[in-house]
Amino acid sequence: MFSMVAIESGSVWNSGIVHSLWNILIIGGGLSISEKADEYSVMTYVLDSKDFVFTGGEFGIESSIIALLGYVIVTLAAICMIKKKAKV
After folding, report:
1. Alpha-helix runs per DSSP H in 1-88
2. Are 30 and 43 in contact (CB under 8 A)?
3. Which residues, 6 or more positions from 15, have their beta carbon under 8 angstroms from its beta carbon?
């Protein structure tokens, strides 16, 4: 996903910015999505499931099917933008 952002934009810095924002949001305590509430996060969404597919298990939401779908959507959007630029 981050590679496609870099290829589409022509700069590794844009990929770094997207990656940094992701880390600040998920790791930095801006947003917590898990099986239990996180009192230190600005926003918390509690998943009502204990299924690894939806929660990401021990690793966290970043390895869940929800996150993987998000990665695929961003990657496909970047690929479409790259193809659109190639036609111009």
Report:
1. 2-9, 12-26, 52-55, 65-87
2. yes
3. 2, 3, 5, 6, 9
What's the pLDDT tens digit per position in 26-74? Answer: 776 777 776 777 777 777 777 777 777 877 777 777 788 888 888 899 8
3 state DSSP class of 32: strand
Question: Quick one: how far is CA 40 from the chain centroid?
Answer: 20
Residues in the chain: 88
Burial class of residue 81 in the structure, from the number of CB atoms within 10 Å of its CB (0-12 exposed, 13-18 middle, 19+ buried): middle
Distance of CA 63 to the CA centre of its chain: 10
Give me the phi and psi of 35, to 5 degrees please.
Answer: -80, -15
Torsion-angle region of 60 (φ positive above 0: left; ψ -120 to 50: alpha; else: beta): left
Encoded tokens for 31: 């947003």
Inter-residue contact 15 to 3 (CB < 8 Å): yes
